[in-house]
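Z., the sequence and structure:
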Amino acid sequence: MSFTAEVRDELSRCEPACEYCNLATLAALVRVSGTLSITGEGRRLTVATETGAVARTMINLTHTVLKLKTELTPRRSVLHKVRNYLITLPEQPGLDKALVLLGILDRKGRLVAGVPRHVVARPCCRLAYLRGALIAGGFVADPKGDFHLEIAVSGEELAEGLAQLIEQVGVHARVNRRRGAFAVYIKSAEDICQLLDAVGAKRSVASVRDARAMKHVKNNVNRRVNAEFANQSRTADAAQHQVELIARVHAEGLYETLPEALRTFCDLREAHPDLSLRDLGALVDPPLSKSALYHRVLRLEKLFGEH
C-alpha cells in the first residue's frame, strides 16, 4: 500500500466531531471526485475512484447522512490493470435536496464553484471538509523520499477555497495550475505534519516525523563524512607540497645549510609523508605545535620565493 493510500485509509476512519462533520466530509469528497450529469432520466451523480477508502467513505456517508441509495460498479482498468470503482447516485427522491445540502448546487439549481459556506460554518466542519478533500484527491509522497502533499481539483475557485481553509489551520498552501486542473500543495515537512495532525491522521504524522528524523541523522552523518574527507584531502595536498619542497632542498644542495630546526622538520616529513602537521609535531620530544611546524614550512617556501 502506498503512503497516500495509508493516509486516505486513516482519514476515512476518523470519527466526526459534530453532527455536521460527516456532511462536510461527504461534500468535499463529492466535489473533488464527483461528476454531476443530466440525462433524460434526470440528474445523476457519479464518483469514480481507484481507492477503496474513497468508495467506502462515499457509500457509508451517502447512506447515513443523505439516506440515499447508491449503485456500486467494481471495474478493472484494461490499460493499468488496476481495480477501480464507480459509485452512482441515480435520480431518486431527495437527490436535488441533497445536492443543495452538499453545496454542489445553490437553491436556484446553479453549480457552486468554490467551497460552500454553509458546509464549513464550524471550525470542526472545516477540518472535516479538508479531510474529505484529502481522501478524494489528496496525494502525500512517501516521506522516505521528498516531502510533498497536494490536493488535485478541477476548479480554481475550489482550489483557492481549500488553500484558505488550510491557512486557517496555520499552514501556508500554494495553488498551481496543471493542464487545466489545479493543485493545492505543501512542501514543508512541518506544515504537512501540522495539516495531517489537524485533520486526524495521527499515525501518518508519526511516520512523517520518523522519516524526517532519520533524514536529519543521515544528513548530519553525510556532512561529517564530507567534512572529514575534505580535511583529509587538504592535509594530503599540504603534505605532498611539503615533500616536494624538501625534494627541491636536496636537489639544490641546501639541506646542510639549513638551521637545525628546519632539518628536523625535513627529516620528520620525509619519514612520515602522510601525517598532518599536528600528528607530526606529536612525534617530537618535546612535542611541537601545529603552528610551530607551519612556521617552518613558511621558512622553506621563502627559500624558493614562494612567499
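The CA atoms of residues 160 and 185 lie 11 Å apart. The radius of gyration is 34 Å.

Let me know what you think.
H.
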